[in-house]
Write a structure and sequence with these properties.
Elements: H1 2-10, E1 15-20, H2 26-38, E2 41-46, H3 66-76, E3 80-82, H4 108-111, H5 115-130, E4 134-138, H6 142-154, E5 160-164, H7 184-187, H8 192-205, H9 211-222, E6 228-237, E7 252-260, E8 263-270
Parallel strand pairs: 1-2, 1-4, 2-3, 4-5
Antiparallel strand pairs: 6-7, 7-8
The protein binds pantoate (PAF).
Residues 19-21, 49, 52, 119, 122-123, 141, 144 line the site of pantoate.
């Protein structure tokens, strides 16, 4: 992959890259569409990265659907799927990690210790292998996007980071590879998460600026669906992920994680 990438760069081609863990859906395909606007050689990576999963998380059962993923990428116009084997990225004596120390604090950083260290490390490795001019990430993983932007800026990585909007089902549920874990009865309850985010947004749109009161509006709405067990709801600066007590419209991210049955869902909205 690296040899191919360097050859393409030598020929003046522009590489646009979509890093994924596979189990691809329309949300990922919207990233491929964005990649086509950003480059003329589109690479999608499919690698379920072990270092970003905690010991009790779903690494072993994470859906692996490489043939279907490759077919989707081909149909959508990607030129290359880079899918290293599960033991193909980390040498037995691998010992170098990248740790971002500001944006990775709080939110998922509190609930998934070591997660962002695994993400930044694998993304840096993938950037070195794929040599992209631009890389496209989904806004659903808002904290991941902030962490990666910060890593790229801190370490002078010559990659444009592009964040593409969340793609939702008609009922509002944000697309995610993990949605396929949800049995039908729980799937029917999942849209209440986005409804609660919209309740927070409605409070801000009607003039509320006190973060505690916006949080109450969110919690009142979420309480309508007790199956959604709140892990966190945080109002943060959208760029640094620092918690805010006063809403700054346009710059504030409302980010949430819940458990629904065995499945963890995250979502967010800019207020
Ligand atoms: O967002 C994901 O799918 C993963 O965290 C990423 C960026 C591909 C790194 O493994």
């Amino acid at each position: 992959m690296q040899r191919l990438a360097l050859k393409l760069r030598g020929e003046g081609r522009r590489i646009a890259f979509v890093p994924t863990m596979g189990a691809l859906h329309e949300g990922h395909m919207s990233l491929v569409d964005e990649a086509k606007r950003r480059g003329d050689f589109i690479v999608v990576s499919v690698f379920v990265n072990p270092t970003q999963f905690g010991p009790t998380e779903d690494f072993a059962k994470y859906p692996r659907t490489l043939d279907a993923d490759a077919a989707l990428c081909r149909e959508r116009g990607a030129h290359c799927v880079f899918a290293p084997p599960s033991d193909g990225m980390y040498a037995a004596d691998f010992s170098t990690f990248i740790e971002e120390g500001l944006c990775s604090k709080g939110l998922c950083g509190d609930h998934r210790p070591g997660h962002f260290r695994g993400v930044t490390t694998v993304v840096a490795m993938l950037f070195n292998i794929v040599q992209p001019h631009a890389a496209i990430f989904g806004a659903k993983d808002a904290q991941q996007c902030a962490v990666i932007r910060k890593m790229v800026s801190d370490l002078f990585m010559p990659v444009d980071i592009v964040v593409a909007p969340i793609v939702r089902e008609k009922d509002g549920l944000a697309l995610s590879s993990r949605n396929r874990y949800l049995p039908a009865d729980l799937r029917a309850k999942a849209p209440s998460l986005y409804k609660a985010l919209l309740a927070a947004k409605a409070a801000v749109d009607s003039g509320e600026r006190d973060a505690a009161l916006v949080k109450s509006a969110f919690e009142r709405s979420l309480a309508q669906e007790p199956a959604l067990r709140l892990q966190y709801f945080t109002l943060t600066d959208a760029r640094t992920m620092e918690p805010l007590s006063k809403i700054r419209p346009g710059e504030t991210l409302a980010a949430v994680a819940v458990n629904l049955g065995e499945t963890r869902l995250i979502d967010n909205i800019t207020l």
